[in-house]
Automatic annotation (TrEMBL), chain A:
GO terms for biological process: protein sumoylation. InterPro entries: ThiF/MoeB/HesA, ThiF_NAD_FAD-bd, Ubiquitin-activating_enz, UBQ/SUMO-activ_enz_E1-like. PANTHER family: THIF-TYPE NAD_FAD BINDING FOLD DOMAIN-CONTAINING PROTEIN, UBIQUITIN-ACTIVATING ENZYME E1. Belongs to the ubiquitin-activating E1 family. This is THIF-type NAD/FAD binding fold domain-containing protein. Residues 19-156 form the THIF-type NAD/FAD binding fold domain. GO terms for cellular component: cytoplasm; SUMO activating enzyme complex. It comes from Aegilops tauschii subsp. strangulata. SUPFAM superfamilies: Activating enzymes of the ubiquitin-like proteins (SSF69572). One of its GO terms (molecular function) is SUMO activating enzyme activity. Pathway: Protein modification.
From TrEMBL, chain B:
It holds the Pfam family UAE_UbL. The active site is at residue 195. Residues 464-555 form the Ubiquitin/SUMO-activating enzyme ubiquitin-like domain. GO terms for biological process: protein sumoylation. Residues 31-453 form the THIF-type NAD/FAD binding fold domain. One of its GO terms (molecular function) is transferase activity. Residues 323-390 form the Ubiquitin-activating enzyme SCCH domain. It is found in: Nucleus. InterPro entries: ThiF/MoeB/HesA, ThiF_NAD_FAD-bd, UAE_UbL_dom, Ub-E1_IAD_1, Ub_act_enz_dom_a_sf, Uba2, UBA_E1_SCCH, Ubiquitin-activating_enz. This is SUMO-activating enzyme subunit. Residues 576-652 are annotated as: Disordered. Keywords: ATP-binding, Metal-binding, Nucleotide-binding, Nucleus, Transferase, Ubl conjugation pathway, Zinc. Zn(2+) binds at residues 180, 183, 453, 456.
Length: 237, 652
């Protein structure tokens, strides 16, 4: 993951004040790692903007949005990042409009637009990211990107997510993930998880994700609650 | 709010289908969810962490008629999760700013925002009656109980919720069909026996309370307030009655050091003289400035004067301490204490005598942290960083955006069920890390109303009290307002009205009530003795209770510190004292030090209970309530869609 090694710099007074309540949840160390993480989101829609909101508020290092679709009225109905002001959204892509709104949520986070087509992004492009989130992509694109994430020398975490009506699904691939599990009244224990790739999972009967019967809007929040849907406690690598 | 409650088999029945149908369902055909949502008028109480997410979700879900009530203003520490607010909004009303933010992306919905306290008289039963459902996003027990009672009185369904860190829950309360919010009594914030705070602290939180409520209050707070600190010096030659008073022209450094020696040195020596106290306890070590900061004694008058007049005075800044996560040494704590002490007198003299501890007051937090740490050192209790101490002293609830987002989603799901009168599918949903299964959400069917709940069913209560020495005022404060949560109570004995609270009282009535407050129970105009029945009412909450009095002479100072005991409904589970500073679920690398493995249970002195034997509950309210560890073999009922099929599963 990003950073690696002991971080000597302390959080600034501004960060400490803003992030006080969440530092009390996951600690200073996790906050520092978070601030050095770089995330790419491909596909800007109701589901992924929930995630974007949460990760920007939390103080991630940077967030890049890839979605060249021009904003339509449909987007206005399901996207709280798009103001009802044609002078603001008219003729712009979803990524562009949402990028501006998200910057507002936390001036300490670098939010940027990444122009392009997810199905065409190459290895060197994704190297700058620690996490890639994909939504409303074809299976082919999902496999392509997941494969690329695994090929790079640095481990890139891969999430694919979709919501339809009252169903939602999420696929997570953290490759080889190690973390510390807090034990009640004892020392934290090192844990290891081995995630299968999407390719492998497709043919595997042991499902790693659950299909959740929920209404579409609420599902957005639920799916990006914490990565701990699949492991007791996932720390940022 | 309790962790999935231990199910009582007697009460696990299918929800009663009796009861008046909600206004929505009285239409000829059951409304579709879209129709129900479109026509709904909802009240949201609280526009904070849950409120912001909830308002967003309601707007996106098609709700178009919303009222919001919140008394709070926006603070910087809110901005990590209350995303409708910006830095430029700090100081402004949460309700109003939230409304404006939502209207930006949903300009055509009706939102009425109230910057007010939900307990205000304007939010009476008639006000509540106009809504189809009430959604709570509150952060304190008191307001929750108040809203619960108004919803019962107005017969409006209530969807309750709460979050703390990664944990949260959503519960549904419909009069006549499910439990009300108070059917399962909630643990009230724990208070500590005075002697534990003044003489025998065993945990860091005791030291914090001492530093905050005694030392800080004594030095900087209202001089007229009662204070349990020992004010007498051993020096018979001193003509001062109160050693905390500054001598005329006394040098500030000298004053500070004198106070230091008095509270950390002399007072401890006095306490040590009582052998009985220390028979089974670790003896504390007196601490004197000459030992902790020998150089300070010689350096009178000098100060590290690098404080910038434009910035908030801070002892840490003066001393070059920059990391709030660092645990200071005894010497550093002592320097901080003396420096903070001096800064209050040098830079904030006008406020002295009026100060109340505020967690956002940096200098106050520094002072309290340092004082608590020095005391902790004396008593062999581990020291804590400013960051941790602030959490304890300020009752800070840890919070992240994601949990609130989940809970908001669940609230809307339940609200839609309520609007459609879909009672078979109401669920209490707990958002947590399931101890054994890989689940994040645990839905549980609501229970039927508790027949002995004094709020939603009529049940008389019993009060053990010494009627000869206890004043009416104490009963009203400790029992009626505090335990029973009444806001503006009225107390009657038979047909005699002995007390009333509220506006609009005649002068002579008010004077009469003031007199009654000071009388002991047995000497009231209608004497209260063993067997007397009190009728207590709150008009606004439309709540009426009977309390049967049982006279008792003796009360245990430690176990029954109030000097009276209320019973008659399922008593709250005795919870271990804990607060944020002691037992965080946080994976904070800075708090890797272990908290006590075994802790003395104050209700059973001498008996120790292991932390992991206690039930875990997380309460999103004044965080001085408890936090413990999950019992792995706890019974938990998982109910699937068919309420008739109830399986009790033992967690493996």
């Amino acid at each position: 993951g990003g950073g690696g090694g002991a971080e000597e710099e302390e959080l600034t007074a501004q960060e400490t004040a803003l992030y006080d309540r969440q530092i009390r949840v996951w600690g200073v160390d996790a906050q520092k790692r978070l601030s050095k993480a770089h995330v790419l989101v491909c596909g800007v829609n109701g589901t992924t903007i929930e995630f974007c909101k949460n990760i920007v508020l939390a103080g991630v290092g940077s967030l890049s949005l890839m979605d060249d679709h021009i904003v339509t009225e449909d987007d206005l109905n399901s996207n709280f990042l798009i103001p009802h002001d044609e002078s603001v959204y008219g003729g712009k892509s979803r990524a562009e409009v949402c990028c501006e709104s998200l910057k507002d949520f936390n001036p300490m986070v670098r939010v940027a637009v990444a122009k392009g087509d997810p199905s065409l992004i190459d290895g060197t492009f994704i190297d700058r990211f620690d996490i890639i989130v994909l939504s409303r992509a074809s299976l082919k694109t999902k496999l392509f990107i997941n494969d690329n994430c695994r090929k790079r020398s640095k481990h890139i975490a891969f999430y694919s997510v979709d919501c339809k009506d009252s169903c939602g699904e999420i696929f997570v691939d953290l490759q080889n993930h190690s973390y510390l599990q807090k034990k009640p009244g004892g020392e934290p224990e090192q844990q290891e998880l081995k995630y299968p790739s999407l390719q492998v999972w497709k043919f595997n009967l042991n499902f790693f994700c659950r299909f959740v019967e929920i209404k579409s809007f609420s599902s957005c929040a639920l799916l990006f609650c914490t990565p701990s849907l699949f492991a007791p406690r996932i720390r940022f690598v | 709010i309790p962790f999935p409650p231990k199910p009582n088999p007697r009460r696990l029945k299918t929800l009663a289908s009796a009861g008046a149908p909600s206004p929505m369902a009285s239409a000829a055909a059951p409304a579709s969810s879209e129709e129900a949502v479109k026509a709904a008028k909802v009240l949201m109480v609280g526009a904070g962490g849950i409120g912001c997410e909830l308002l967003k979700t309601l707007a996106l879900s098609g709700f178009s008629d919303i009222h919001v009530i919140d008394l709070d203003t926006i603070e910087v520490s809110n901005l990590n999760r209350q995303f409708l607010f910006r830095k430029s909004h700090v100081g402004q009303s949460k309700a109003h700013v939230a409304r404006d933010a939502i209207l930006k992306f949903r300009p055509n919905i009706n939102i009425e925002s109230h910057h007010a306290n939900v307990k205000d008289a304007q939010f009476n039963v008639d006000f509540f009656k106009q809504f189809n459902v009430v959604l709570n996003g509150l952060d304190n027990l008191d307001a929750r109980r108040h809203v619960n009672r108004l919803c019962l009185a107005a017969e409006v369904p209530l969807v309750e919720s709460g979050t703390t860190g990664f944990l949260g829950q959503v519960t549904v309360h419909v009069k006549g069909k499910t439990e009300c919010y108070e059917c399962q009594p909630k643990p009230i914030p724990k208070s500590y026996p005075v002697c534990t705070i003044t003489s025998t602290p065993s945990k860091f939180v005791h030291c914090i309370v001492w530093a905050k409520e005694l030392l800080f209050a004594k030095l900087f707070g209202d001089k007229n307030q009662d204070n349990d600190l020992n004010v007498h010096s051993k020096d018979g030659s001193s003509s001062k009655l109160d050693v905390f008073e500054r001598d005329v022209d006394e040098d500030l450094d000298q004053y500070a050091q004198r106070i230091y020696d008095h509270v950390f040195g002399y007072n401890i020596e006095v306490a040590l003289e009582n052998e009985e106290t220390w028979k089974n306890r670790r003896r504390p070590n007196p601490v004197y400035i000459r030992d902790t900061l020998p150089e300070a004694v010689k350096q009178n008058g000098s100060s590290w004067d690098c404080s910038n007049d434009h910035e908030e005075p801070s002892a840490m800044a003066s001393l070059g301490l920059t990391n709030p996560q660092e645990i200071w040494t005894l010497a550093e704590n002592s320097r901080v204490l003396l420096e903070a002490f001096k800064l209050f007198f040098e830079k904030r003299e006008k406020e002295i005598g009026n100060l109340v501890f505020d967690k956002d007051d940096q200098l106050a937090v520094e002072f309290v942290t340092a004082a608590a740490n020095i005391r902790a050192h004396s008593f062999g209790i581990p020291l804590h960083s400013l960051f941790e101490a602030k959490g304890v002293a300020g009752n800070i609830v840890h919070a992240v955006a994601t949990t609130n987002a989940i809970i908001a989603g669940l609230i809307v799901i339940e609200a839609i069920k309520v609007l459609q009168d879909d009672y078979k599918n109401y669920r209490m949903t707990y958002c947590l890390e399931h101890p054994t299964k890989k689940l994040l959400l645990m839905p549980v069917e609501p229970f039927e109303p508790n027949p002995s709940c004094y709020v939603c069913s009529e049940t008389p209560l019993l009060l053990d009290v010494n009627t000869k020495v206890t004043k009416l005022k104490e009963v009203i404060d400790k029992i009626i307002k505090s335990k029973l949560g009444m806001n503006l109570p009225l107390v009657m004995i038979g047909s005699t009205l002995v007390f009333e609270d509220g506006d609009g009282l005649e002068e002579d009535e008010a004077a009469n009530y003031a007199l009654n407050l000071e009388k002991v129970l047995a000497e009231l105009p209608a004497p209260v003795i063993n067997g007397t029945k009190l009728t207590v009412e709150d008009f606004q909450q439309e709540l009426s209770c009977s309390i049967n009095i049982k006279h008792r002479e003796e009360f245990d100072e430690e176990k029954e510190p109030d000097g009276m005991v209320l019973s008659g409904w399922s008593a709250p589970v005795e919870k271990q004292i804990n607060s944020n500073g002691e037992n965080k679920s946080a994976a904070s690398s800075s708090s890797a030090r272990a908290t006590d493995d075994t802790v003395e249970d104050p209700s059973k002195p001498g008996m120790k209970r292991k932390l992991d034997e206690l039930l875990e509950t997380k309460e999103n309210c004044d965080a001085s309530s408890s936090a413990q560890v999950v019992e792995d073999d706890d019974d938990c009922t998982m109910l699937d869609g068919n309420p008739a099929l109830i399986k009790k599963k033992r967690l493996q």
